[in-house]
Amino acid sequence: MFAYQFADALHTAERRGLDRFVSMQNHYNLVYREEEREMLPLCDREGIGVVPWSPLARGFLARPLSELTATPRGERTSDSDRMSVYRSNGGDETNRRVEELAEDYGLSMAQVSLAWLLSKDSVDAPIVGMRSVEHLEEAVEAVDVSLSDSDVEYLEEPYEPKPVTGHS
Ligand SMILES: NC(=O)c1ccc[n+]([C@@H]2O[C@H](COP(=O)([O-])OP(=O)(O)OC[C@H]3O[C@@H](n4cnc5c(N)ncnc54)[C@H](OP(=O)(O)O)[C@@H]3O)[C@@H](O)[C@H]2O)c1
Predict the structure, then answer these.
(1) Were both Cys, which of 15, 31, 122, 139 would link to 86 (CB 3.0–4.6 Å)?
(2) Distance from the alpha carbon of residue 128 to the mean position of ligand 1, in angstroms
(3) 127 lines ligand 1 (CB under 6 A)
(4) What values do phi and psi take at 153, rounded to 5?
(5) pLDDT tens digits, residue range 22-65?
(6) Does ligand 1 come within 6 angstroms of the Cβ of 140?
(7) In sequence order, what are the residues at sequence separation of 6 or more whose Cβ sits closer than 8 angstroms to the Cβ of residue 69?
(8) Over the chain, what HEC string results?
(9) Quick one: 59 exposed, middle or buried, by C-beta within 10 A (0-12, 13-18, 19+)?
(10) Domains in the chain with CATH codes
(11) Would you say 27 and 2 are in contact if contact means Cβ atoms under 8 Å apart?
């Protein structure tokens, strides 16, 4: 959903005396950050909870480039249009940096990627795609991981704007 559409929906609900929307489920992760332009500032201003989906970019942010096709889902999605968007405009370099910080801190790549998302004040809770109990446990541990400002800056640096994907 575009931010102007959500602003319309909030306004319409208010004008008609209907229940207010309280949360936004949107597409947001380290390699797809277009939501930072309009939607996240709108949600901040309106006090709307943000619950992003695909926080690990379908697994792209959870393993090194050399292992992207190492799982059944990875094999299925590695040449999809969405994966091309994730990999484009700095995406592959971001993946390498996530891997580097994960090694430095003794964390998994999934934990570094989730810690980055949780460092954002706008974000309330990511919807992680769990495939195993280990994935769940790692995600829970990521809640206690704090990245420094310079880590966050390092992870964000390669990103360049991308076409809107995940809604139209
Ligand atoms: N509202 C909407 O429009 C919308 C759209 C899309 C999705 N969703 C919801 O969002 C949910 C999550 O989306 P998503 O599955 O794309 O999320 P995601 O968290 O970006 O990706 C999940 C994938 O990351 C990998 N992974 C997760 N934890 C890991 C860990 N600890 N270590 C290594 N790899 C890990 C797994 O890949 P492998 O399977 O390859 O191991 C898993 O399939 C969906 O289930 C759906 O319910 C909502």
Answers:
(1) 31
(2) 5
(3) yes
(4) -60, -40
(5) 999 999 999 999 999 999 999 999 999 999 999 999 999 999 99
(6) no
(7) 75, 78
(8) CCHHHHHHHHHHHHHCCCCCCCEECCECECCECHHHCCHHHHHHHHCCEECCECCCHHHHHHCCHHHCCCCHHHHHHCCCHHHHHHHCCCHHHHHHHHHHHHHHHCCCHHHHHHHHHHCCCCECCCECCCCCHHHHHHHHHHCCCCCCHHHHHHHHCCCCCCCCCCCC
(9) buried
(10) 3-156 (3.20.20.100)
(11) no
C-alpha 142: how far from its chain's center?
Answer: 14
| Stated pTM of the model | 0.96
Low-confidence ranges of the chain (pLDDT < 70): none
Residue 108 CB–ligand 1 contact under 6 Å: yes
